[in-house]
Amino acid sequence: MSTVLPSHWPRSVSAAELVRNFAECREVAAQRTLPVTHHGRTTHVLIGIDAFNRLNGAGRDGPMPDPVMVYALADWLEAGLILCDERRTIQFVNRVAQGMARAPAHGLVGSALLDALPSLAGSLIETHLRRTETGGEVGTGDIPSPFSDACWLRFRSFPLGPWNALLFHDITGEVRQNRMADETQALRAARRLHGGVCFARLSVRGTIDRVNDPCCRLVGLAEERLRGVAFADLVPTAERPAFRDALEAVLRGEGDRATDTRLLTNEGALAPIRASLTQLRGAYGVEGALLLATATAETGPGIRPS
Prior knowledge:
The structure is a single chain. The chain is of the alpha+beta class. The chain is built from 11 helices and 14 strands. It starts with 12 loop residues before the first strand and ends with a strand.
């Protein structure tokens, strides 16, 4: 039965009063928190053990969360999650992991991991999972997907309460982007070494955003002079409509184009080129077009679809 506190008992006590009247303070703390002051400033709080356990119950030494809530939360992850017990029996598979493995949960849960997913046998994933099982080690790596060809996964194995967890994240797009970045870098180096490949990045309005040195040398103007100029204005008047039509078709997404045309130079001459026009798309739609060109012998102008 709880003790009825005296009505005159203060809401806080000083450290000295706590020492002199600890028995009474303990009775108060069993029913409510009791602030302890030092030189008028609250520095500690005296609470009963039941209240302390309630506060500390969510700590690492407290009980595990309800598994149903854990499973419900895991189903909202954007990564695949598989939970196994100490015998490596699958206890839970979230929706993303089911999609990766192309198997429903009822066909996986309760089965031995390698029986349900034999493609993991002998893989780097199994190696790291074994280390997690034996020593609680956290393992991670990027590997070709054991579930699907031409896909890549970033996996992580780690202990999670009574389970050992496998977390999978599809990084196929990231790997492809990195490979494309490497290829793009190599192409830029090849263009620089060639020295005769003209490059221009055009905006959605057909104006020049960026040009390389060979293009500047061909027309006899510095990049600062060319930036913001409509590329079609560098083409002779008679050939300009055909070039504009080709560029607009590329920007509309009607396919890439190749053209034989000529450029007006700063000296008033005409430089024949063979140019290709391709659409440049970004994350939010069309960002413009790319033009590659090389100087050629004199040929008649013409536009060819790719």
